[in-house]
Design brief:
Its EC number is 3.5.1.88. Pfam families: Pep_deformylase (PF01327). By secondary structure, the chain is α+β, with helices and mostly antiparallel strands. It contains four helices and seven strands; from the N terminus they run E-H-E-E-H-E-E-E-H-H-E. The strands form two sheets. It has a five-stranded antiparallel sheet, sandwiched between helices. A two-stranded parallel sheet has the order 1-7. The longest helix is centred in the last third of the chain and has 15 residues.
């Protein structure tokens, strides 16, 4: 099932999420649906709040960032259930990020190059892993979502002022995306 992506301006994107209990019904189906929704929208990550679910869950697939077929085989495709970032470290670096909930807006965001995260997979196996580079960045971006933080929150006041009108348009439903979106108050 492909869910509509929740657009900037909806309070669900600003709400800290709740832990998922182990008896959560149809969790594997939800994870599969999130992957399907993410791929349909040509994303590399999707967090539960972006489909209007206030759950500590996100999925990623770093393959689209890999141009070489051999490197694509090493890409990380993973669901993160009840994740907790334990540490962010390493050299900070800038990269132009975007977000399915904020189509048409891309800005440089500075993040540390490594992240250590503890999480459960869909079979409730616990993991504690270190990721770096682009995979760490995708994880940090999606983790922000489950904390009610958007990539635009990392921008300087000057950059925020420059994109304010674009964000206002998105929140009003004045946006062109090639995937289904849902706007706060059912606009458009």
């Amino acid at each position: 099932m492909i869910y509509p992506i929740i657009a900037y301006g909806d309070p669900v994107l600003r709400t800290k999420t709740k832990a998922i209990p182990q008896d959560y019904p149809d969790l594997k189906k939800l994870v599969a649906d999130m992957y399907e929704t993410m791929y349909h929208a040509h994303g590399v990550g999707l967090a539960a709040p972006q489909i209007s679910k206030g759950l500590r869950l996100f999925v990623i697939d770093s393959a689209p960032f890999e141009e070489d077929e051999e490197k694509k085989k090493l890409a990380v495709k993973q669901a993160f259930i009840n994740p907790q970032i334990l540490e962010e470290n390493g050299e900070e670096w800038a990269f132009e990020e975007g977000c399915l909930s904020i189509p048409g807006v891309r800005e440089d965001v500075i993040r540390p190059e490594k992240v250590i995260i503890r999480y459960f997979d869909e079979d409730w196996n616990q993991h504690e892993k270190t990721f770096d580079g682009m995979v760490a960045r995708i994880i940090q971006h999606e983790y922000d979502h489950i904390e009610g933080v958007l990539f635009t929150d990392h921008l300087s006041g000057f950059r925020k002022r420059l994109i304010k009108s674009k964000l206002t348009k998105i929140s009003k439903g004045d946006v062109d995306a090639d995937y289904v979106m849902r706007f706060y108050g059912n606009k458009k």
